[in-house]
Amino acid sequence: MAFIDKISSCIEKYSLLEPGARVLVALSGGADSVALLLSLRALEYDCVAAHCNFHLRGNDSNRDASFVADLCARLGIELATIDFDVPDYQRRHKVSLEMACRELRYDWFERLLGERRCCAIAVGHHADDRKETFIINALRGSGIKGLSSIKPKNGNVVRPMLFVSRADIEAFLEEHNQPFVTDITNLSIDFGRNKVRNRILPEINALFPDNAMLRTIDSLLSCNEFYQGALESAIANCCQIDGDVVVVNYRKLLAFRGYDALLYGIVSRYGFNAVQADELLQAVTSPDGVGRIFVSQSHRIDVGRKAFTISLTENGDTLAAEYRFALPDVPAELPLQLSVEVIPFSSVDFERNPLVAYLDSSIVGVPLVLRHWRRADRMHPFGLKGSKLLSDLFADAKYDSLQKRNAWVLEAAGEVIWVPGLRTSDRYRCKPGGDVVVVSVIE
Questions:
Q1: Residue pLDDT, tens place only, 316-356
Q2: Cβ-contact 355, 420 below 8 angstroms
Q3: Residue 189 pLDDT > 50, yes or no?
Q4: How many CB atoms lie within 10 A of CB 262?
Q5: 388 with 423: CB under 8 angstroms?
Q6: Which of 53, 188, 377, 439 satisfies CB 3.0 to 4.6 Å to 390 for a cystine?
Q7: pLDDT tier, 185 (very low <50, low <70, confident <90, very high otherwise)
Q8: Going by C-beta distance under 8 Å and a sequence separation of 6 or more, which residues neighbour residue 207?
Q9: In terms of C-beta distances under 8 Å and separation of at least 24 residues, what long-range contacts does 210-215 make, across chains too?
Q10: pLDDT attached to residue 318
């Protein structure tokens, strides 16, 4: 299939864009973004290019900006440009270099959507990026959601190049005698994603050139969508809900294939972890399990002869389980599954993901406590001046009462440094030139 046809097929399969739509194309000047712009233009989309100059690579940054301006002028493409003072943003918002660039870039893209009357932001992630993400998530440990890799669409962001590889992109540009610029930092093989990109993935592609991995990822993406729908239907079938009380019928529960996954899908909504779900399943399937009680911060489960009942606890704040450890080691019995990596700052691919904390390496060896939040808890969040009550942060994030009861916090020396799923604090912010401890919640 021709390169342009693959782009068109991806757009059609995932319903990314309407024919002739006005699209904002993130254009760095690199091979991926240049190929994306040429492809969408060839498919007769109304393209507006957007280029950010962060002024972080000296003459190379200005070279990229000039290249993009010349390319758009030659093609007759409308171009929006912006210059950012990244160090100033870091000082004001107290965030890392990579996080500052990401926030500046995507905040600007979102503003441009309205200003330039565009329907979506098109970015140049391609098939090799999907493979990299799949490999990294698989090695870190992940469920079906993480193994589904990069989504074709995420909010206003669309990825039309997921059916083409980096080799396809370079061949396409060579065929059209189209130059591009290269960021030499992407060629490093020292750590993290770049090592997967430049060393591991080429070996896999050489051994398995038929893209079976992509078919696996596509299958997992479809399976996850189906699983989420099937889960809702199964829960409705075996659960009887009366106000704050949920009664789960054993006969109906165990009639489902994969009832262990269904059981976890039910109880995880009420703050119970995977270990408790496994113990509950043993209790449900054993005569000796009748009468057992399981407790989360907000709910309790009472095991009966024919059903178990989930109900609110009288006072969730009295539940004060604490788990003590120190990074980089993570105990297996933690209620949250965590993965930990220590990576040089320059090699970290920072993401806007509240389930990932990027901490300075000075955190290594510091005594930590993982526990549920308490009403007096405060934190100094990234990007804010001073500290705030967690209850106020929950209100800002529109947490409901169940989400608040189930919230975990990571504490260091009596100070909350991370609320998984919400925010990290300013206390252990990463510093250029050192190492970064990347802590991820495994879903």
A1: 433 456 788 889 888 877 888 888 989 898 888 888 888 99
A2: yes
A3: no
A4: 22
A5: no
A6: 377
A7: low
A8: none
A9: 211/127, 213/131, 213/134, 214/127, 214/130, 214/131
A10: 39
> Quick one: which of 39, 46, 45 has its CA closest to 161?
39
At residue 346, φ and ψ (nearest 5 deg) are -65, -15
Q: Position of tokens 């996080």?
A: 99
Q: pLDDT tens digits for 252-311?
A: 999 998 899 899 889 988 888 878 888 999 999 988 888 888 888 778 898 988 999 998
Cα 180 to Cα 64: distance, rounded to the nearest angstrom: 9
- Distance from C-alpha of 361 to C-alpha of 430, rounded to nearest angstrom: 8
**φ, ψ (nearest 5 deg) of residue 391:** -60, -35
